[in-house]
Design a protein that fits this description.
Helix content of chain A: under 10%
Helix content of chain B: under 10%
Order of helices and strands of chain B: EEEEEEEEEEE
Number of helices of chain A: 0
Distance between the termini of chain B: 37 Å
Structural class of chain A: mainly beta
Distance between the termini of chain A: 41 Å
Oligomer: heterodimer
Number of strands of chain B: 11
Mean pLDDT of chain A: 90
Chain lengths: ~120, ~120
């Protein structure tokens, strides 16, 4: 079956440091890949996505590249801010989602990021 | 972006009682809603997929008689935890999407504590 493995946290960084959160996946075909972010007390929000190999998703200074050869979708940001402190989830959607399970997502375990001033 | 409201955000109940959690899409018609369960420091686990006007599809290992899902309108789905027990204590999260749009929009979650 499909699975997503994320780098274990928590990750603690100083402001303006470089961030990488690793994410690898197992799936058949060409799944779509997502990064979601959950700020304290809020629901998950879509941060960025990529739907095919070599696509780069980007948003708010974050970016991730869909690497089919390494089955990875690592999240990076060049200079983090205190406001980036949150839980980050990597997720995939199977290539042929349909029928009654349309849009089903498989999540990684989440990585807690804390950024200090 | 689209807004999904989940209510209540936190509920405490006695063992044996039933608890209803609501998930509403506030600014779009949600043809499909998903219910997830999240244990501490673990991933979101999909419990069931709910399509408006039809029976929910449950994931393997999820008791459909225990977790009743109703998606009676395009803006509301409910999850009822029947005869709750302490092992049902968890964080429950819903999400919603609409036809021809793949992005799921998530509610803020409901923390259930069963005493």
């Amino acid at each position: 079956g499909n699975s997503v493995t994320q780098m274990e946290g928590p990750v603690t960084l100083s402001e303006e440091a470089f961030l990488t959160i690793n994410c690898t996946y197992t799936a058949t075909g060409y799944p779509s890949l997502f990064w979601y972010v959950q700020y304290p007390g809020e629901g998950l929000q879509l941060l960025l996505k990529a739907t095919k190999a070599d696509d780069k998703g980007s948003n708010k200074g974050f970016e991730a590249t869909y690497r089919k050869e390494t089955t990875s979708f690592h999240l990076e940001k060049g200079s983090v801010q205190v406001s980036d402190s949150a839980v980050y989830f990597c997720a995939l959607r199977a290539a042929n989602a349909g029928g009654t399970s349309y849009g089903k997502l498989t999540f990684g375990q989440g990585t807690i990021l804390t950024v200090h001033p | 972006g689209a807004v999904v409201s989940q209510h209540p955000s936190w509920v405490i109940c006695k063992s044996g009682t039933s608890v209803k959690i609501e998930c509403r899409s506030l600014d779009f018609q949600a043809t499909t809603m998903f219910w997830y369960r999240q244990f501490p420091k673990q991933s979101l686990m999909l419990m069931a997929t709910s399509n408006e006007g039809s029976k929910a599809t449950y994931e393997q290992g999820v008791e459909k008689d225990k977790f009743l899902i109703n998606h009676a309108s395009l803006t509301l789905s409910t999850l009822t935890v029947t005869s709750a027990h302490p092992e049902d204590s968890s964080f429950y999260i819903c999400s919603a999407t609409w036809r021809a749009q793949n992005i799921q929009y998530f509610g803020a979650g409901t923390r259930l504590s069963v005493l």
